[in-house]
From TrEMBL:
Descriptive protein name: histidine kinase
Lineage, highest ranks first: Bacteria, Pseudomonadati, Bacteroidota, Sphingobacteriia, Sphingobacteriales
Keywords, sorted A to Z: Kinase, Membrane, Phosphoprotein, Transferase, Transmembrane, Transmembrane helix, Two-component regulatory system
Entry annotated with the keyword Kinase: yes
Keyword Transmembrane helix annotated: yes
UniProt subcellular location: Membrane
Domain Histidine kinase, chain residue ranges per copy: 41-257
Length: 260
């Protein structure tokens, strides 16, 4: 009846949007190679329809549909919603790349302990992942002045990578060490590691280790963005890794932000 009409037209418009999104993404991929400035603009263009898809799905999700057809459609709505979230994450990454390239990453400074940042970052990750366990070591109660949201984004990137690239190990160590006027944070995994000749390229945008890239999804933006965020704070980022043994990604953060 009325509800199935609504769902039918939802399906049609979702399909149309999916096609145009796919088209836009292919276009973005081609443009990425040519002009970075455009990525920011294109990402904004993509974000607008996504926001409306999401609002539409939320509306349908809240509606009380009573016929059976409607119930069958719910799992698809959930799946579509998950894809929308994934696309949104990709677009956020693309926007961050544009911001970093244009030197326009704004910071909202705050005082917080590294323990708080690691806890909030892991809450988000370990909600859905039960294969790995995180061990927090060192002096996590040290307080830094930084953009908490951005530092958590870096931690989420590094911890997610540590999990993703260590399928045969279950242990991740986050170590917090104060060093004079800065703090050094290390994320260690016991996973596949990185081949020696690739180490120098690992923080370049779009770079992915060729042997691993076929087995794991990703765009090669996480480390580039993470290092950009840390550099913007006046810190640095690096890696120690051995192929087949594991990796330690580290970053430093000044305890007081240089501009503050
Ligand atoms: P993504 O993981 O989305 O490809 P990143 O920028 O986060 O992008 O990482 C770039 C590449 O570096 C990855 O594709 C992977 O080859 C390698 N890499 C990153 N973190 C690790 C890790 N902890 N262990 C092994 N390889 C890693």
């Amino acid at each position: 009846e009325e509800d199935s009409d609504l769902l039918g037209s939802l399906a049609i418009s979702l399909n149309r949007m999916a096609i145009s999104l796919e088209y836009s993404f292919n276009e973005i991929k081609a443009l990425m190679a040519k002009k970075d400035d455009f990525i920011g603009i294109a990402a904004h263009e993509l974000k607008t329809p996504l926001t409306s898809i999401k609002a539409y799905l939320q509306f349908i999700g809240r509606a009380k549909l009573e016929n059976n057809d409607a119930n069958k459609i719910y799992p698809f709505i959930t799946k579509a919603n998950n894809q929308v979230n994934r696309l949104t994450e990709i677009i956020k990454d693309l926007l961050d790349v544009a911001r970093i390239n244009e030197n326009q990453l704004g910071l909202k400074l705050d005082n917080f302990s590294m323990r708080m940042a690691v806890l909030e970052a892991s809450e988000e990750i370990f909600n859905s992942i039960k294969t790995h366990q995180l061990f927090l070591e060192g002096d996590p109660d040290i307080v830094v002045q930084a953009d908490k949201f951005r530092i958590e984004q870096v931690l989420i990137n590094l911890i997610s990578n540590a999990i993703k690239y260590s399928p045969n190990s279950d242990r991740i160590i986050v170590d917090i060490k104060p060093e004079q006027d800065l703090v050094k944070v290390s994320v260690t995994d016991f996973g596949i590691g990185i081949p020696k000749d690739n180490l120098q390229y690992i923080f370049q945008r779009y770079f992915r280790v060729e042997v691993t890239s076929q087995n794991y999804s990703g765009m090669g933006l996480g480390l580039y963005i993470s290092k950009g965020i840390i550099k913007r704070h006046g810190g640095d980022m690096g890696v120690n890794s051995r192929e087949g043994e594991g990796s330690t990604f580290w970053f430093t953060l000044p305890l007081k932000h240089p501009g503050a």
